[in-house]
Each structure stands twice: as structure tokens, then as C-alpha cells.
Write a structure and sequence with these properties.
Blueprint lengths: L1 E6 L2 E4 L4 E9 L5 E8 L6 E6 L6 E3 L7 E6 L4 E6 L8 E9 L15 E2 L3 E6 L1
Parallel strand pairs: 2-11
Antiparallel strand pairs: 1-3, 3-8, 4-5, 4-9, 5-6, 7-8, 9-10, 9-11
Length: 127
């Protein structure tokens, strides 16, 4: 099990940028696929992006491709989500999640594949 803490959320204008960080503690961070999800008010939680254990593979939901970038530093037990050209529809609570994996190049796009979750950080994009 890993304990995850997100940071970096806040209020930003349309077109602005934010960088979310997720710090992990507990079992070896490099054993885990990492993902980012978000939940807007009144909506279901949705997948945003994922990164493999090695960091060599990533995947994103279509509506953030080209705007969001996930990276990880296994030496520092952190994963980041760089968000550029933010839009009001990006407003949500953002969560990082960890999923155990055997494969170093595997990634996960479904929330059911993740076992550990952070508390979330609020991102608000004003129009």
C-alpha cells in the first residue's frame, strides 16, 4: 500500500497552467502504475492520464491530449501532472492513484485497476 498526497491545485484563468504533484510514501513507488483522475461537481470520476512504472509509456483521455503531461520521478517518489491551456471544463478535484503492476511498461486507464488513492486537490479554471 502507498500513501498519496496531492498538491498544486488552485484557481487559474482560462488558458493558464498548473502543475499538480503527488508524493508517495510506503511501499516501493516504482512497483506502481500511476494515474490521474478528476471529478467535477455532479459528475462521475473520470480518467485523465496514466504513466507506466518505468515512465516510458503514458496515455491520456482525448480531451486533455496535447495539453496535459504526466511525468514521474521514481527516485523522489513523485508523479506530476502538468496542465497547460486550461479550460473552465477542466474544473474538478484531481486525484492521483497507484496500481500494482508486474510489467514495467503497463499502464491502466480504469479506476478499478488502482488500489490506492490520494485525497484530491481542487483545480478551478475561471472563464
Amino acid at each position: 500500500q502507498v500513501h498519496l498526497v496531492e498538491s498544486g491545485g488552485g484557481l487559474v484563468q482560462t488558458g493558464g497552467s498548473l502543475r499538480l504533484s503527488c508524493a508517495a510514501s510506503g511501499r516501493a513507488f516504482s512497483w506502481y502504475v500511476m494515474g490521474w483522475f478528476r471529478q467535477a461537481p455532479g459528475k462521475d470520476r473520470e480518467f485523465v492520464g496514466t504513466i507506466s512504472r518505468s515512465g516510458g509509456r503514458t496515455d491520456y483521455v482525448d480531451f486533455v491530449k496535447g495539453r496535459f503531461t504526466i511525468a514521474r520521478d521514481n527516485a523522489k517518489n513523485t508523479v506530476t501532472l502538468q496542465m497547460n491551456n486550461l479550460k473552465p471544463e477542466d474544473t474538478a478535484v484531481y486525484y492521483c492513484a497507484a496500481g500494482r503492476s508486474v510489467g514495467t511498461n503497463t499502464y491502466y486507464t480504469s479506476d478499478g485497476q488502482y488500489q490506492d488513492w490520494g485525497q484530491g486537490t481542487q483545480v478551478t479554471v475561471s472563464s
